[in-house]
Design brief:
- This protein is of the alpha+beta class.
- 39% of the residues lie in helices and 21% in strands.
- An eight-stranded mixed β-sheet has the order 1-10-11-12-15-9-8-4.
- β13 and β14 form a beta hairpin.
- The longest helix has 36 residues.
- 38% of the residues are buried.
Amino acid sequence: MIDIKQIIANPEAVRTALLKRLESVDFTELLQWESERKSLVVAMENKRNERNKGTAEISRMMKEKQDATTARETVKQIGKDIADLKNKHDDLATRIHDLLVNLPNIPEDIVPAGGKENNVVIETFGEKPGFDFKTKDHVDLATDLKLVDYARGTKMGGTRKWVYYGDGALLEWGLINYFINHHIKNGYAFMLPPHILNAESGYVAGQFPKFKEDVFHLDAEEDATHFLLPTSETAIANFYRDDVLREAELPKKIFSYTPCYRKEAGGYRTSERGTIRGNQFNKVEIFHLTTPEQSEVSFQEILATAKQLLRNLGLHFRVSRLAADDCSASMAKTYDLEVWIPSINDYKEVSSVSTAHTYQAIRGNIRYKDAATKKNKYVHTLNGSALATSRLFPAILEQFQQADGRVKVPEVLVPFLGKEYFE
């Protein structure tokens, strides 16, 4: 959530930034409500002081055996006035909160305006693989090599489901283990969070209330209280909810492995076949909590980690800076790492590296005590997939396929699979 102090300090700057991702922004009503709310706070404080004086006066009159009836009525009326002021204050506070909670994060200056058509490719790694033979797509390769059973996955779970089987399951598990080992060696704390989260977790991460319909709820009612996590970021962002951390503890670096459960929209185009788009997929996620001063260093570290993993796998990929309206609403900046899928002649995202600044921390009341000022400040939260596997799987099959129908196993995964080729 945007800090209202930021809007009060420079409403035009915030408005201009938000216009990168919204059609219109007007803070006139919000600022008026906030001004009225502050006036009500002062009025309530004055009334409370008046009531305290009246109560003291009644006590004095009682000790002196004086009639305090009128004074009691006056204090009683002041109590009613305070209650009336509080109701007005709470109504304004609710309106202010409801407006703020539905605003997206303020994009960084470097973020382009508009939607995905304005995304900018900033780096490309490796060369697109060239083939001098008739190639297969990942679905045919996975089927022929008995790595994935799509038909039985659909039979068991419906559309957008599949079963990794045999060497396919070993490849999937090898990727996850490779990522886990890499992050442990780099000093990250490993977390295995619950897959069922409460509504507050969705709110803190920024998915609720606006994107509540995008997740799988466990209750039939519209105000369902529990849901399946769409990404472990949603869980990790809540781990320190309502905590005050010591500045010396920061940055905190955490990673998690979970399946992810999402109501993915889309059709049955070639670009979405196989494991490219599904309702359940595996992902290893890294997450940082930092001071504002550490934030950009952490962003670059997460980005470098994701790039290193892809380079080590030997895959051709690119890095894109997302335009404001293509970023998640919670994020101030996002870079996507997109791997090349030859059969669709296109790139698919396997990692999003993002910074939320204080947006999630304000919602979750996650703070740290500044060592110099001794004041509590909101942390910055950052996250990045490192990596999601469901699109790496087809990229590996297609980029490393051989003329004889085999697929070469990336060198870093050989120890996990015990073989150099799928055949």
